[in-house]
Design brief:
- The protein is an alpha+beta fold.
- It has four domains: about 190 residues, Galactose-binding domain-like (Jelly Rolls, Sandwich); about 120 residues, Jelly Rolls, CATH 2.60.120; about 350 residues, Glycosyltransferase, CATH 1.50.10; about 90 residues, Maltose phosphorylase, domain 3 (Sandwich).
- Helix content is about 25%, strand content about 30%.
- It has 13 helices and 44 strands.
- The strands form ten sheets. Strands 13, 14, 18, 19, 20, 21, 22, 23, 24, 25, 26 and 27 form a twelve-stranded mixed sheet that branches.
- Helix 2 crosses helix 13 and helix 11 runs antiparallel to helix 12.
Length: about 800
């Protein structure tokens, strides 16, 4: 079947990117995975380096797969295919993937990078059961006559989040219709081993002298290259189409360029940078705030001149890289994502080298700045903006914990918070959806045992939140069976009291110290209550998810078990004298101790963590909850870090105290942001009690954006997917006005603004989009005020239905 290019989407949408004072983002675009090119069958085969010519270079490796440092050497497999076309086709779509990762060039132009993150855990030695491919529109890069598709495949992980099957393989088809393929991988492709990348004195490096010169060009002579070998590995059932758009890139310019010379700082103009000859020099490019992306350069150098490129977030170097020059022109683009405010360039050249260009391309998932927020308090406005910036930096082909760490998808607690920020700042659903699916596949292949034990349960909460904001029933049907298997595994960790005392560990809790223990991985006596509360919540949420897809028997089983657990927590962990829940009971755990599970001590602790969760999940009776939260926010023994403060804010909102206690708690973020980097810090301190040094672009501390938009603007889903919107007017002594936009579904938004005049008059404006309705939920602070809606007096009932349209809602003090 013939199709035109405008009938289907590819993963590389033709983004219109924008740079302005608010940030870097894409213009409004339409993406839906159902509209992607429907790749059902492959003509191409998996191929790799010729088995006879390169018998010792057939395997790939990552941090936890095939990783034998004595045996594994970093190498690339280079592939080329020449082909001719007489006429430009109506459609040309490159479907492509490789293991571990690749960059593809058509006629010397970069046309594809991938694959999107596959998904793996910490210490995950099990091979992935799927592999993503992506589709790319290459029509504008084709030429009538001879073309060449050149692909470099990395045999090793460039960042920690990447995984591998352990066997090198590459596959692609260029399709010009649903049934016709122009080019496919087979043994006619030319291949060559490349060892330009290496480790030199613990620095990742590239030696330009080792790379075949101009190998991506059509006129390159590849006659002495080998024929590729066909690799007999599964395609059907293994290759999976990625259902997210790929990250966009946009060039950004430094704010200043500084040449370090004899202890002096000399500011260079761009023209001076490009006309000066550099010998042994140090140049610092300052981009004004932290950013994420890829740097590239073009220089004229002498053989074995070196450049050391050092990205710096604030004052710490990360991922330093050494480039060894060949004589003449050197063009290079770093193949992995970096994060930095400052890019330091150390030049080592006796004869001098010249810079033609040094560019940085900002890169992130294609976010639209649909949501926004402003209010009378400048700090809350700035905090919202910094969180949006940091969250965007962490949105790539997966939600990252941070672009510095780039950890595997093992940090679901981070992603739960980041996706909530996303729903209010950007309104995207697809990245969270793909990550939720990847996590399910990872759990399945690892028998539902996750490295961070508590984080596996948070995957269920993450899914429940996703459903709340999207009403995606199809995803529930796919993932709820995995939810039930995960819950079944945790049932095995319960003891006869129905407490989770037999878990393999209690990671992750917080980057703090409780008694003498690191709460990153506390002993059972500290972790029992915390993990039991998470399991209780998982069962309650799972009951709702099962009910949504008609699994009522499973719903009832979950609620029955949850009831027993709730009873157990109140019976065995509640301390009547202290009026608090204790964390656990010493020496109940029978699990063999290991690095991540300390021996119990004969201690009793009352962490704010277990007490917060007991309130948030209604394990604690209502009459206890306010005093318990007063303890949590006033105790000074344990300083809760930004991550767990999300649960504290949630519990405060749960007891209807966000407009007082919660808003005050947001002031802690004055020490949680860094204005030099304009990002979120991982922890309040630069170094924890146990010596852990955090980074400066960590979006797990971004929960204030969610609370600011959902509470101060007052918009939440009353029914999943915003089928009904709940609008709760905000009342507070400190904030006198606020305004903003909340994305709710697709391109739909809710516009909200409000102001107060002393305490006698509150006016709220809300615009409800077409095909939506809302419930006005008047807070108790305004229930004794007279109410007018669009000038008409209304009974000030608790809830009033609002259909689509513009509303002026006025409260006057009687």
């Amino acid at each position: 079947k013939t199709i035109s290019q405008n009938q289907v989407l590819t993963n590389d949408l033709n983004y219109n990117s924008i740079i302005d004072s608010s940030g870097i983002y894409v213009d409004n675009y339409q993406f839906h995975p159902d509209k992607l090119f429907p790749k059902k069958e492959w003509k191409g085969n998996w191929i790799w380096l010729n088995k006879e010519d390169y018998p010792d270079h057939q395997e790939t490796f990552s941090t936890w797969v095939n990783n034998d440092p004595k045996r594994n050497k970093k190498y690339r497999a280079l592939f080329r295919k020449k082909f001719k076309i007489d006429d430009l086709p109506e459609t040309a779509i490159l479907n492509i993937t490789a293991d571990v990762s690749f960059r593809a060039y058509l006629n010397n132009k970069l046309v594809a990078v991938g694959p999107p993150n596959i998904g793996s855990d910490y210490e995950d030695h099990n091979l992935p059961a799927h592999w993503f491919f992506t589709s790319h529109n290459i029509l504008n890069s084709l030429e009538i006559g001879e073309n060449v598709l050149a692909v470099e495949v990395f045999s090793f992980d460039l960042v920690l989040s990447e995984t591998t099957s352990g066997k090198g393989k590459f596959i692609c088809d260029i399709d010009n219709s649903l049934i016709q393929t122009l080019v496919a991988t087979d043994s006619t492709w030319k291949c060559r081993l490349d060892t330009s990348y290496a480790i030199i004195k613990n620095f990742f490096s590239f030696n330009s002298n080792e790379e075949p010169e101009n190998w991506t060009n059509a006129n390159f002579d590849d006659e002495d290259w080998s024929a590729s070998s066909i690799i007999d590995k599964p395609i059907a059932g293994y290759l999976t189409q990625s259902k997210i758009p790929i990250p966009f890139r946009r060039k950004i310019n430094p704010k200043t360029i500084i040449l370090k010379s004899n202890n002096n700082d000399i500011v260079l103009s761009e023209n001076e940078l490009l006309t000066k000859t550099f010998f042994n020099s140090e140049i610092i490019f300052d981009y004004g705030k932290n950013g994420v992306g890829f740097y590239n350069f073009s220089i004229i150098a002498n053989k074995n001149d070196t450049l050391k490129i050092i990205p710096i977030e604030k004052n710490r170097a990360n991922r330093p890289f050494i480039f060894i020059c060949k004589a003449g022109k050197n063009d290079f683009s770093i193949p992995y994502l970096n994060v930095f405010r400052y890019l330091k360039l150390e030049v080592s050249s006796e004869k001098g080298l010249n810079i033609n260009s040094i560019d940085v391309e900002y890169s992130s998932y294609p976010t639209t700045y649909t949501g926004n927020f402003q209010c009378s308090d400048e700090f809350y406005t700035q905090l919202w903006d910094i969180i949006r910036n940091t969250t965007q930096m962490c949105m790539q082909s997966l939600y990252l914990d941070s672009p510095l760490h780039q950890e595997p998808i093992a940090c679901t607690g981070d992603y739960l918070i980041e996706s909530l920020s996303n729903y209010y700042a950007f309104g995207d659903r697809w990245l969270a959806r793909q990550d939720l699916i990847k996590t399910a596949k990872m759990l399945e292949k690892n028998n539902y045992d996750m490295f961070h034990t508590s984080y596996s349960l948070l995957w269920i909460q993450w899914l429940a939140d996703y459903y709340r904001y999207t009403a995606d029933n199809e995803l529930l049907k796919e993932l709820v069976p995995h939810v039930n298997k995960l819950n079944e595994l945790f049932r095995n960790y319960l003891d006869e009291k129905y407490l989770l005392t037999q878990a393999p560990d209690y990671m992750f809790m917080d980057w703090i110290k409780i008694e003498k223990f690191n709460a990153h991985h506390p002993p059972a006596v500290i972790g029992t209550g915390y993990l039991t509360a998470f399991y209780y919540k998982s069962l309650v949420e799972s009951a709702k998810l099962n009910e949504n897809i008609g699994n009522n028997n499973q719903k009832d089983e979950n609620l029955s078990l949850a009831k027993k657990i709730k009873f157990a927590v109140n019976k065995y962990l509640w301390d009547e004298q202290k009026q608090l829940y204790k964390d656990g009971i010493p020496f109940l755990s029978k699990v063999a101790k290991h690095f991540w599970l300390h021996e119990d001590s004969n201690i009793v602790t009352y962490s704010p963590h277990v007490n917060t969760l007991a309130v948030l999940y209604d394990i604690a009776p209502k009459e206890r909850q306010e005093s318990m939260m007063n303890y949590v926010v006033t105790q000074e023994k344990i300083e809760l870090q930004p991550y767990f403060t999300y649960y504290v804010l949630s519990a405060i909102e749960h007891i209807s105290k966000f407009n007082t206690i919660g808003l005050s708690l947001l002031n802690k973020w004055k020490n949680g942001i860094d204005l030099e980097t304009y990002t979120l810090k991982e922890n309040w301190q630069n170094e924890t009690e146990f010596g852990y040094v955090g980074d400066y672009s960590h979006a797990w501390g971004g929960s204030p954006l969610f609370f600011i938009s959902s509470e101060i603007l007052g918009i939440k889903p009353e029914r999943p997917g915003y089928k009904v919107i709940r609008f709760t007017p905000f009342v507070n002594d400190k904030i006198t006005w606020a305004k903003g936009i909340v994305p709710i579904n697709g391109n739909n938004t809710v516009d909200v603004s409000w102001e107060k005049k002393e305490d006698v008059y509150f006016v709220y404006k809300i615009k409800i989009p077409e095909s939506f309705s809302a419930i006005l939920d008047t807070p108790k602070e305004l229930q004794n005020y007279s109410l007018h809606i669009n000038g008409i007096k209304q009974e000030n009932d608790k809830k009033i239905n609002l259909e689509k349209g513009n509303y002026l809602i006025e409260y006057n003090k009687n």
